[in-house]
Request: fold
Amino acid sequence: MKRMRIGQIAVGQKRSLRIQFSPERVLDMPILRVEIPEPWRPRRLRRAARALRKRGVKRVLVPAGFAEWDTLESTGLGPVETGEFCRAMAPAVALAALTGAHIRPEGATVVLRGERVTRAMRMSALKLCPEVKNLLIAAPVGGAGLQAELRREYGVPALEDAPGRAPDLAIHFAPSAGGSARIVDLSGNSPRMDHFSFALREQALPEDCEGLPLLAALWETGRLDPAEITVFTDFHS
Reply:
């Protein structure tokens, strides 16, 4: 299990000028929570951020809509990056996107695009190949090997992406200018997932911090399996 020191900045519930620190557990993950009374002035945020850094915190969870990252980053604090987690969730994201577009997976053509075949792309291909009609692979490095593996595993070809093939959905594992009308870009440190929401099947997420970074932290520290998560979307194009 990967160890990392996670902090949380939350709105203070008590009318006090003091910044309140408390060690807590969120879904069995230890965090150091700091409550800051509103309004959140830069000086007060910097003081809290420096205190978190002195306690070994490098990444923090924040409320939805938080817009003071420049202040936090000036002290060495950063967000929990969500890219690796989003790419691990690529199969569920792809199926949710097809459902949102009213396309049945068993009749769909999906392309996985990247500069090379990564572990996340390979695992996504293994999970999606039995679910979708056609799976296209667009990866200059390792793509042919992945196609051969899928052919051996499932007895059906994973096709190479080509101009004549028009996929219903493209999942990008790296920045790409590839043309497809319906693209979900999972590349980068923290992909924009505006059209998607993630929820635990068995329990609710706390309401005082952004859900996606929290799930990413739980996954990164080995406390969460992607199978425990449901993906919803209003994705159409």
The chain is about 30% helix and 25% strand. The longest strand covers residues 29-36. The longest helix spans residues 42-54.
